[in-house]
Write a structure and sequence with these properties.
about 250 residues, alpha/beta, Rossmann fold, 7-stranded parallel beta sheet, 7 strands, about 15% strand, globular
Length: about 250
């Protein structure tokens, strides 16, 4: 076995929203490098197919509603029962909604906050006792560049993703004494099923393209591994330079 394939050997990760898109990529990448993963999702057929693909020794599917604390508690319990411990939590589940404060519906705002922000809080709350039992671990909250800068016509989504960054930094301070590291990842444009129907250009991105999901999974792997043992409270933009500055400006 190569050195690379053991980067997270012996670690157990619970990933929300892991049946497809970025979450599925994170699961495959962590297993490839030695971890065992629990795939939490509402999409049972896809989740079970992915668990089967990764193998019973490496993966387990659990039905997970991230807005329901009891569902989180059950997912953590199933993780510990199946694999004996929990070392990594990846809060990946999320939805995308449009609309300014004037145009967005109250229902859409509440639903977005429930899934994209409160879901992270509930997952962390449920996972912390198991992470403490393991002697520490890594919580990786998937936010967005909409949690680093303002985004026109994205009131609910941006509010939730900024909230994830705040929750991350506060929790890094609260949980450091238990050797639990907490970091947020802020992807820019990524090719996933959730973004497949979006019309977007890349003139604002210095690298001139969107990201492959594997490029996001690479930093998740780093934050899950002991290579990042002194890394906590960080907010990591994976955006091709989009938030570095105004890339649309031209010389007069």
């Amino acid at each position: 076995m190569t050195q690379q394939s053991t980067r997270v050997a012996g670690k157990v990760a619970l990933i929300s929203g892991a049946a497809q898109g970025m979450g599925a990529s994170h699961a495959r990448t962590l297993v490839e490098h030695g971890a065992q993963v629990v795939i939490g999702d509402l999409a049972q057929e896809q989740g079970r197919e992915l668990a089967h693909e990764l193998g019973a020794d490496n993966a387990l599917f659990v039905h997970l509603d991230v807005t329901d604390y009891d569902s989180w508690v059950a997912a953590v319990a199933a993780t510990v029962q199946q694999f004996g411990r929990l070392d990594v939590l990846v809060n990946n589940a999320g939805i995308f909604t449009r609309g300014s404060v004037e145009e967005a519906s109250v229902e859409d705002f509440k639903r977005t906050i429930d899934i994209d922000l409160t879901g992270n809080f509930l997952g962390m709350k449920a996972a912390v006792p198991a992470l403490k039992d393991a002697g520490g671990g890594s919580i990786i909250n998937i936010s967005s560049i909409a949690g680093l800068v303002g985004f026109k016509n994205r009131a609910a989504y941006s509010a939730a993703k900024w909230g994830v960054q705040g929750l991350t930094k506060t929790s890094a301070m609260d949980l450091g004494e238990y050797n639990i590291r907490v970091n947020s990842v802020h992807p820019g444009s990524v090719r996933t099923p959730m973004t497949a129907g979006l019309k977007r250009g890349f003139g604002q991105v210095p690298l001139g393209r969107d990201a492959d999901v594997q490029e996001i999974s690479n930093i998740v792997l780093f934050l899950a591994s002991d290579e990042s043992s002194f890394v906590t409270g960080g907010a990591y933009a994976i955006d091709g330079g989009e938030t570095a500055g105004n890339n649309l400006r031209t010389d007069a």
